[in-house]
Amino acid sequence: MKVLLVQDVEHLGKTGELKDVSGGFGRNYLLPKGFAVLATRGQIKQAEERLAAQQRRSEASRKDAEALAARITALSLHFTAKVGEQNRLYGSVTSADIAEKLGAELGIEFDRRKIELEEPIKRVGTFAVPIRLASGIEPTVTVVVAGEDAPAEEVATESV
């Protein structure tokens, strides 16, 4: 029996795949639970059209992410904070701070969870912070942290 999967089914396949299953499995499990429909020409054509539309959408979003990655790579975010001994900050620069400033620079709402900062920045310096936009697209933004009294040229360069 040929069926078209409507949902992902563990150990069988993903949504939109055409599968050949035993009659009992299809009639007694897949069809009543709504996991699959009988594979007719119309159903197969609809599935192909949905797959093509999904690929077009994912390609468009990938192009948008690549354009955003180019803009992010060109940016340099500057933060100033109070500094104590050994160039350590009294506070810290967090992923939320970076997301807020990045969103303001780009003119969009930016999610702090996309910023891959293992721990908050607690030192004066220049840091390369990776940002996860999409699968395989991870630009880095330069974050410069300077003390309120120290000039920006005296900060050290580091990678996060």
Automatic annotation (TrEMBL):
Keywords: Coiled coil, Ribonucleoprotein, Ribosomal protein, RNA-binding, rRNA-binding. GO terms for biological process: translation. It comes from the Bacteria. Residues 37-64 form a coiled coil. Transmembrane segments: none annotated. GO terms for cellular component: ribonucleoprotein complex; ribosome. GO terms for molecular function: rRNA binding; structural constituent of ribosome. Residues 13-40 form the Ribosomal protein L9 domain. NCBIfam families: L9. Binds to the 23S rRNA. Belongs to the bacterial ribosomal protein bL9 family. This is Large ribosomal subunit protein bL9.
